[in-house]
Specification:
The structure is a single chain. The relative contact order is 0.10. A four-stranded antiparallel β-sheet has the order 2-3-1-4, sandwiched between helices. It is α+β, with helices and mostly antiparallel strands and about 190 residues long. Helix 3 packs across helix 5. A hairpin with a 2-residue loop joins strand 2 and strand 3. Helices cover about 55% and strands about 10% of the residues. The chain folds into three domains: about 60 residues, Alpha-Beta Plaits (2-Layer Sandwich), CATH 3.30.70; about 55 residues; about 60 residues, Orthogonal Bundle (Arc Repressor Mutant, subunit A). The longest helix is centred in the last third of the chain and has 19 residues. It has nine helices and four strands; from the N terminus they run βαββαβααααααα.
Length: about 190
């Protein structure tokens, strides 16, 4: 028998996992483990436990997902963020985005793309570009890499292409953004 799994919206980092684990412990809900966007429970929970969990999750910016499509969208977002930030396995680094998502989620890309666009009101590709630009902002603020190193790190074909996309998304050149700094960064869950 497969352990029940709950899907959670807005989990984007390791601290999110720790926060959800803490909520589960405080709510006395037994679980096997928590991963990005998922809680793997020991047993089914009661409606009262689910309502309590939902309320506690909402307090810290998370949300229980009840539909399969909403869960799929969260999985797409998580995988796109990992791919955009080059936080994937070596074999997945140079795989194109559509093949990567299809491979990981076991759906045709056209289905994933259509579902994502319908729910999110934007394309997977736009979301991917926004995520790459956020990573570029982070690297610019750290000030430890040149723009050409950042372009290579994020798998851009050239520094000029990164600069063009950066200006299109932020309205600023990378060098001007570096001057302005943190004020223009967004939290990952607000993208």
């Amino acid at each position: 028998m497969t352990a029940p799994t709950l899907l959670i919206k807005n989990m984007v980092c390791h601290r999110c996992v720790l926060s959800v684990e803490d909520i589960l412990k405080k709510s006395s809900i037994p679980f096997h483990h928590v991963s990005f966007g998922e809680i793997h429970l020991v047993n089914e929970i009661t409606a009262a436990q689910k309502e309590l969990l939902s309320e506690e999750l909402r307090k810290v910016g998370f949300e229980l997902i009840d539909s399969h499509t909403a869960g799929l969208i969260e999985k797409i977002k998580f995988l796109v963020m990992k791919k955009a930030r080059n936080e994937v396995d070596t074999k997945d680094l140079h795989m194109n985005l559509s093949a990567y998502l299809s491979d990981k989620l076991h759906y045709e890309y056209t289905h994933l793309s259509s579902s994502f666009s319908t729910i999110e009101g934007r394309t997977i590709e736009n979301f991917f570009i926004e995520q790459r630009i956020e990573k570029a902002k982070e690297l610019l603020i750290y000030d430890q890499m040149t723009l050409s190193e950042i372009a290579a790190e994020l798998d851009y074909s050239s520094t000029a292409y990164l600069s063009t996309q950066f200006k299109k998304i932020t309205g600023l050149t990378p060098s001007h953004f570096k001057e302005v700094g943190m004020a223009k960064r967004k939290a990952l869950d607000n993208i």
